[in-house]
Fold these 2 entries.
Entry 1:
Amino acid sequence: MCSGFAVTTCENKNLKRGKRILEIATRFRLDPFTPLCDNADMKEPSSTLRETDDEARKLARILLRSARYAALAVLDPETGFPFASRVLLGTDIDGVPVILVSALSTHTKALAADARVSLLTGEPGKGDPLAHARLTTQCHAEQVERDTPLHARIRSRFLNRHAKAKLYIDFPDFRFFRLIPQSASLNGGFGRAYILDGSDLVIHSRANDDIAEKADAAVQDLVARHPDLMLALTSRLKAPEAGPWRICGVDSEGFDMISGDLLMRCEFDIPAEDLDHICSNISKIAYLIP
């Protein structure tokens, strides 16, 4: 029994406790009238993961391919502790994320000892940062050897996105790593969690090499034939009015546009089979009435 002031205090505590039980029950879809302390009837709450569908895969690809930088987590070989850093991010023609790092940095030394890495991409916006979509991608790092066609391709694509990197990209201690996705965890906002396979983030196309070889020339030709293309694209895609936009990368699943520090990714509804198909898709997005 409670009495006097204590009665009011107990009643308030009970009200607060009741509200908390209802909040927990609603979150985990439990029956609030089932005692949680009854081990005989206690059940594990249902998983908060959703079934991974095409919409989730598309959002994950956009979060990865539209990121100019990312948080990179490695394992420090000296201490065994996770070590997180910020890196510039690019993509190869197959959608695989690419980083440019110095051999003098802690994370590069860690990669030499253990190739397992994790990337965090996704920009927070106004309000609660946890309400905005983000993607954690677990990868296996593979160093790109200099003086190879692969290095030349990645270098060109990286500079199209990060022009200022030209100041140090050819320094002898700098090297590229391709981060091959193994799995990924997508949080699309509260109540929207998905697990993806690494292959969901990679472009599997026989035309990748041919597209990469001719992409820059094809884009230049497309813009030359349609001088108002970028204006039409920025209007259609509702790009921020930050300055002139340009296409900085294409692949069979979409294209990237950049303006200063802003980067946008546009995914095709249907993957393109070749460069002509890519240019056709870009034109349709720019000029066709939705």
Entry 2:
Amino acid sequence: MIIMKHKHLLLLAAVLLAAACTPRTKDLTLQTKVPARPAGQENVLGLTVPAMDTVRIGIVGIGARGSGAVSRLTYVPGTKITALCDVRPERVEWAQGVLASRGLPAAAGYSGDTEAFKALCERDDVDLVYICTDWIHHTPIALYAMEHGKNAAIEVPAATSMEEIWDLINTSERTRKHCMMLENCCYDFYELSCLAMAQAGVFGEVLHVEGAYCHNLDPYWNEYWNNWRLDFNQTHRGDVYPTHGLGPVAQVLGIHRGDRMKTLVAMDTKPANGPGRVEAKTGKPCEEFLNGAETTTLIRTENGKTISITHCTMTPRPYDRKYQIVGSEGYAAKYPVQQMCLRRSQLEQEANEQLLDQEKILSAEEMEALRQKYPNPMLTPELVELARTVGGHGGMDFLMDYRLIYCLRNGLPLDMDVYDLAEWCCLGPLGALSIENGNAPVEVPDFTRGAWNVKQGFSYAFAK
């Protein structure tokens, strides 16, 4: 207990020292250090690598997310799983069984300790290292992979500190290797449809968006290897899992594609249920738990748009990613109910002023008609059918994998780059900085270092 208390005192001292040393702008906005781009290094906007007929994949981490990836990737055309790695040998053996059941050759296996991934990354028959470990190992494995000539795909969140974020950016820029975060929610069918509609102007100018990760994790806390997820929540404030909510709405706003996140403010509630989870798990008193029961981050962009992101995993609040788009002429939401609203004037309908119904809430049939009128170019009927058959959160996991491999096989830019990773992950450390300083505004760095408005709008790349 004395050791734990000493550890937390050191952590508090470090936070206070960092706050004291953190520079502020004239309006008292906190700033973090933006490292200068090393000489001779260029941004990776639109980065491509030589096309690959077959993408040879090494998978590191075969737990809940990694096991699904092993199964899905066997259905993606042009893939070969050549290496498997997990601390636990039985998980590697399980994955070998999946390959055998699909009539595929066995992969090289690595296990036994947390350094086993290095031998996988050093192999000559791996093009892509697919990382599904606990959060604190995401960045070290990705850095090692890129340093050894491999592209890296990292489960969410890919990075948990500003140092890790900048390390990933600089390594991707220097090695010219892809570093993509595996944000599956960007491939949800509803989100994909709304993105196409927003880009077509159906909602007018998009002014505000909301995202969230509200998911009661009570049934799952005991399933994480070595208790890593609960431990991380115990020792970190801020939104520690922001990317499911932020990723899809950031694409709608074209973040670092004509707009950028400029300033954020974060607030959290008291921990409430967190200490009890620790005590139930360890059988010991929990004297400190840092992550709030609910954390909310508000962001303003360079172009005057706003974003609201919520994290809540320890209350009975129903599952909710929000995904809400507020435009000058329309509105769309996935949670708590799928809903779209347009001005009646857009639909050439008259409003009843007594019913306060200037906006028209579209029926399911009307929403489907809009989806058909404004299709997402990625969603071909054949791909939709395959995704729904293979599955993975209804098919969005498969779509994510398919697009990653498709782009690599065709030498195209990936749908998401290392700057998306940086922007979506930074809410954790920057939000913590805001909270620890009385909910002060914090400047969000331009992770592209000057190129955030070179490209205009999010788009997919397709082979000609």
